[in-house]
Amino acid sequence: MSQEPHRQKYFAKHGYWRGMHIAREQDLSEAPSHPSLPEAARVWARIGFLSFGGPAGQIALMHRELVDERRWISESRFLHALNYCMLLPGPEAQQLATYIGWLLHGTRGGVIAGTLFILPGFFVILGLSSAYALFQDTHWLTSLFFGLKAAVLAIVVEAVIRVGRRALKTRLALVIAGLAFAALFFFAVPFPLVVLAAGLAGYLMARFQPASEAKAAAAAARESLDDKPSVIGSDFAQGSASLGRTIRVLGIWLSLWLAPFLLIGAAIGFDNTFTAIGLFFSKMAVVTFGGAYAVLAYVAQQAVETYYWLKPGRCSTGWRWLRRRQAPSFWS
Q1: How far apart are CA 51 and CA 206, in angstroms?
Q2: Measured between alpha carbons, how far apart are the two ends of the chain, in Å?
Q3: Whole-prediction pTM
Q4: Domain count, the chain
Q5: Contact between residue 31 and residue 231 where contact means Cβ atoms under 8 Å apart
Q6: What is the span of the domain harbouring residue 101?
Q7: Residue 26 located in a structural domain
Q8: Which contacts (CB < 8 Å, 24+ apart) does range 93-101 have?
Q9: How much is the pLDDT for 45?
Q10: Selection from 107, 109, 112, 104 nearest residue 231 by Cα
Q11: Is residue 282 part of a domain?
Q12: What pLDDT was estimated at residue 315?
């Protein structure tokens, strides 16, 4: 006969279970300790290895790891950062990881987070590309990743439902979300236009809404997010950037961006395929708003029809691979 009921009665009599319950409530009522840089690096590496399914799957995984499980960043700060990254050129998922890493540990944290986010996918796609170039066969890869599609779809759907329930609390937010879905799904409106139209609608509503109603709506929206105490919360002290520091940072990273072109030009000249590839994707990085989905079709068209780098069949094969492995699709 099991002794578990008697043990529970004994501990309940002495307040053991009640103490454990109070401890759990206290854990949720207080922000967790600030993670160390090695701990954060391990988490970013884990996210990099498990980020399948393109931007939606990657953002869903980051939300689960950083908001729900570890509480390194609050729900409102995560959504605010995501909205901001969606308006920047380039891959929003990697930008989001870099920004959160920078908030946690400064420049080192941002570099580590951004690098580990794409490094596993870089080696995976490098290996797959080499195997395809050598053997010209992808049937084994299709079989290998057959079951992964369903798992990725489940992750994305679950994340959309979870985040939608927390973020879409006002009538205006629900209307904008419904119209955006209809524009994308039924009318194939370009993604950047949908994002800009949604932002414009929100601005106009806030601009012409009475002040009292605007404050009430903003307060209701903040309360609906149900922020739990987090390392990066509403009271998180974020350092201010001076003009001089901004100029130094721009100078350093622009130099690193231009260095490969100068090295290639000095070694083999500027009129070659490597320089063309670098210039093309540098231009894409600057002007591609709306994330990877907004630019993949244009990149494929240019690679096939303008530069003749790929045949149409190989381009579609590469797209199938990218949808089944880690790291941002656009950067691969």
Answers
A1: 36
A2: 60
A3: 0.70
A4: 1
A5: yes
A6: 37-234+288-322
A7: no
A8: 93/51, 93/55, 93/58, 93/59, 93/62, 93/117, 93/291, 93/328, 94/118, 94/327, 94/328, 94/331, 96/59, 96/62, 97/44, 97/47, 97/62, 100/62, 100/66, 100/72, 100/73, 100/232, 101/40, 101/44
A9: 92
A10: 104
A11: no
A12: 59
